Amino acid sequence: SQTIHQWPATLVQPVGSPLSLECTVEGTSNPNLYWYRQAAGRGLQLLFYSVGIGQISSEVPQNLSASRPQDRQFILSSKKLLLSDSGFYLCAWMYRGITDTQYFGPGTRLTVL
Amino acid sequence: TQLLEQSPQFLSIQEGENLTVYCNSSSVFSSLQWYRQEPGEGPVLLVTVVTGGEVKKLKRLTFQFGDARKDSSLHITAAQPGDTGLYLCAGARNYGQNFVFGPGTRLSVLP
């Protein structure tokens, strides 16, 4: 069965510090991978998605970047965090069958102070 | 503007009551999904609907996809405190496209 991991679970960082969030998927190969951000108790905003190693598509211009160095690894980064980067970050992978289905990781709560 | 609208935004009911939440759009979707999310956790998929007029039942939950595939509803019978959470709908305009998410309905079921 497939499993998706995210770490860290919680992170508190000062403004201007760098960021690296990691997501890994087990039990599948060549998955589509996604990074979302969720404001407190609200819907999900798609930040980046990747259909393969080294392939990154950005949905919104922002202070963040993403990379996919390995097939089942997806990284979200920033060189200098802003207060507005605070939020709940979710990684997801897409199962493509008769219907497309997304499965989410447990999320990372980022607080920028 | 949101491509997918959800209503109500908040709902607080007593255990044992029935409820319906809605997901609406002016656009047609090839498929639509419902998720439940608990605080501090990732969304968990409840159901996927793909056919206009389709009705799916998952124990006390009944999901319906509108005939025109522009809207969906989730009905919960005899709600329990364990049903508390944020209910999100998400849709793909066409197969292979990324999903868009609604803003969610936050449900509280009081014992």
Structure description:
The complex is a heterodimer of chains A (113) and B (111). Chain A is an all-beta fold. Chain A is 0% helix and 61% strand. The model of chain A has no long low-confidence stretch (mean pLDDT 92). Chain B is built from no helices and eleven strands. In chain B, strands 2, 4, 5, 9, 10 and 11 form a six-stranded mixed beta sheet that branches. Chain B starts with a strand and ends with a strand. Classes of the chains: A mainly beta (113), B mainly beta (111). Chains A and B meet through strand 5, strand 9 and strand 10 of A and strand 4, strand 5, strand 9 and strand 10 of B.
Keywords:
heterodimer; A: 113 residues; mainly beta; seven-stranded mixed beta sheet; four-stranded antiparallel beta sheet; B: 111 residues; 52% strand; globular
Number of helices of chain A: 0
Enumerate the spans of chain B where pLDDT stays under 50 for 5 or more consecutive residues: none
The arrangement of helices and strands of chain B along the chain is: EEEEEEEEEEE
Roughly how much helix do the residues of chain B carry, as a percent range?
under 10%
How would a textbook summarize the main sheet of chain B?
Answer: 6 strands, mixed
Globular, elongated, flat, extended or rod-shaped: what is the shape of chain A?
A: globular
Work out the radius of gyration of chain B. Answer: 13 Å
Using only C-alpha atoms, the radius of gyration of chain A works out to 14 Å
Helix coverage percent of chain A: under 10%
Q: Classify the beta-strand content of chain A into a percent band.
A: over 45%
